[in-house]
């Protein structure tokens, strides 16, 4: 039985599948801020660093790992995924983080696969954006 609250469920894997159930935090961010977390669900992918606008936000994220929610300024950003400890970029996505939003970005896919290539999926963890006046 799951306790009450909101959750994000992610099925991941390659040859065998696993279920990752994450508790969502729906506490409203401060004005001008977005909360964001990252999930490394790319089967067979190496350990990575996650950069936001060129600055390292999270280091040494291995397959199956999940970061805590992190407050970042709302607005357009570039998220890059690099091989851990290097400048070797494996994935880049532009993202527009809405004021008051709470997001999970999931890296998925299989390195080198044409059928299931590496990608990042941005999920909105809250059905409505927090508005503060």
Secondary structure layout:
Blueprint lengths: L6 E7 L3 E7 L9 E9 L6 E5 L2 E7 L8 E4 L1 E9 L5 E9 L4 E7 L10 E6 L9
Parallel strand pairs: 3-9
Antiparallel strand pairs: 1-2, 3-6, 4-5, 4-7, 7-8, 9-10
Q: Order of helices and strands, N to C?
A: EEEEEEEEEE
The average pLDDT is: 87
Kindly provide the radius of gyration, computed on alpha-carbon positions and rounded to a whole number of angstroms. Answer: 15 Å
DSSP E strands, number: 10
Strand content: over 45%
Uncertain runs: none
Report on the architecture of this protein.
- With 133 residues, this protein is mainly β.
- The chain is built from no helices and 10 strands.
- Strands 6-3-9-10 form a 4-stranded mixed beta sheet, with no helix packed on it. Strands 5-4-7-8 form a 4-stranded antiparallel beta sheet, with no helix packed on it. It has a two-stranded antiparallel sheet with strand order 1-2.
- The N and C termini lie far apart (38 Å).
- The mean pLDDT is 87.
Write a concise keyword list for the protein shown above.
single chain, 133 residues, mainly beta, globular
Summarize the structure.
With 133 residues, the chain is an all-beta fold. The protein contains no helices and 10 strands.
